[in-house]
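Archive entry: two folds, one per protein. Generate the first.
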Amino acid sequence: MKLSRAIRPRALPVGAAAVLGALVLTACGTDDNTGLPGAIDYTNENVECGPEGSLLASGSTAQANAMEVWVNAYQANCDNSHINYKATGSGAGIQEFLQGTTAFGGSDSLLGEAEIAESERVCRDGGRAIHLPMVAGPIAIGYNLPGIDDLVLDADTLAKIFDSQITRWDDPAVQELNPDADLPDMRITPFHRSDGSGTTDNFTSYLHAAAPDVWRYEPDKNWRGKGGQAADGSSGLVGMVQQNAGAISYFELSYAYENGISAVTLDTGASEPVVATVENASTAIASGEVIGTGNDLALELDYATTAEGAYPLVLVAYEIVCDRGNAPGTLDLTKAFLTYTSSEDGQETLKEIHYAPISENIIEQVRERVAALS
């Protein structure tokens, strides 16, 4: 039985959302600790269990909601297996993986050449770190603007807002994009991540590609823009937007959906502005190309696409593992868990919590890489 049909996200209170970014995601039996509503039936006959034991991983907060559901589903079916995923941010996840303290790391940005070289000290038997794309989805631009439920912005305007060049909501540039809106004379308060973040890397990659004349900073996991305020983790940004009228920030769509936060519609240059939805993100992600070599499945995305119905502000969350030379004590459990997350059931679940499954041609390659891990 597929568990995905039973999942329906709801809004979380601010206090609960603030905890999520630092949460260690675990479950025992059929307990539901996802923060998602209802009595979710995690029993799934298609889960192939690995050995008993414990697995520690950390990283991307953008994939935390997906990882939470996967962990609960796996553990509901596999007695005495414990998967602990710490949603600490992509930067911390990569660092802990390269220190050899986790079985795999979650990251929304690609490792650099120096980090791949460093991974050769952690991966035994001549192995190296590879990227396994496991979950994708739109990055929502969430905002708190009383009385304004629909807001259109383009890349240039967003770049100016997040670089403190546009500072008020009734600025002419914002009004031009929203001619029918009664925009308030209110200060804009942009919030960005204080921690190293793959979501920041993807957001700034979009600004750099789609608004190159305005956003002159190179994409980075660490924030480079001027001004604004900072918060830790995606859940920290959610809390700041909820608590501050005039605030605007960026986080994975599932966070906006669960917390009832309005999201910007993007004017991409297509005939109609594009709404942040899983379907529109999938349209943009489908044009991504594998640029990794050997066993690596790193993808290159087109953040500046103007294709009809394509929402270009997207991210792909990767699980970072050794292609060979993984720690013998965790190898089999790592393979079993990632076999489930990349399975048809594991990917189908993502649609119900506002993530985009990885395209079939790519996820088939992920399954092959997971089966070959040694």
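Generate the second and append.
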Amino acid sequence: MPEPRPDSLRLLDAAPEPGTDATTWVTEHRAEIRALVARHGAVMVRGLHLDDAGHAVSVVRRIIGDGMAEREGFAPRDTYGPGLYSSSHWPADQPMCMHHELSYAAEAPRLMVFACVTPPSAGGVTAVADARAVLRDLPTGLVERFERHGWLLTRHYNPFVGLGWEDAFGAKDPAEVERYCAAQGIEVRWDADGGLRTRQTRPAVRTDPESGERSWFNQIAFLNEWTMAPEVREFLTSEFGPDGLPFNTFYGDGSPLDRATVDLINDVYAQHTVREPWQRGDVMVVDNIRMAHSREPYRGAREIIVGLGEPFRA
């Protein structure tokens, strides 16, 4: 017999009546979907027919309502409307490790929706992990240290890797970026060549304002230098120096993280990872506080529409 699925991802068979449009079905069942997300943390709706990206955007919009614009992004996305995007244009052969969307920002989405227009030929799963369980299973001393000091994210926006600051902040004027960063508690330093370096310290643990439950809520492991592929890390370090990586994370007091600690965090995530391979028309709805998510390497075409909704102060 197959092993029972962990409670952190519920599969929901849509089974719409013949001729029922996916947008109509989602609108009629939105309350049921949201109730399942509240109970399980994530739900995969299966059996819908999505004709193209435009149809998927319509479905996602009905679930998230008013979308939340992304600021401080890491990789390019195609934009389809307020809070509506393609998945990040991240190299297909490189994983996106477990993280909570925009957990480094002052404002993050509570709700995320992923809609599969074209599944990859192999890999490419958007996996999830219960961040309450991750917090429970991390070493107490490690958690206490991060709770005392938070976690520090450094970024180096340059025209060669990832997004430049103009695209990340949606601004052309450095003064506008400085005003935004000052309001969000982000330290700013400009390079002589126009590059931008930032530092921001955020809490590593989040208490759900509704349930009171605590979750490991951050991107400490994903954005750390030790999670990068060795050849990528070596190339970037040789090009920009150890302090010029496009992103890196530290303890909140500025102390560096060693490889063993980063590997430990990723290992605990792996123990709680739930995977469901994409099928055409799948729609996954995720509570971004309770659940971390990742994207595995893949082959072939892969088209996923992403929605960000219900912003909260993180």
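Annotation attached to the second fold: The domain at 10-129+276-313 is CATH 3.60.130.10 (Double-stranded beta-helix). The chain is about 30% helix and 30% strand.
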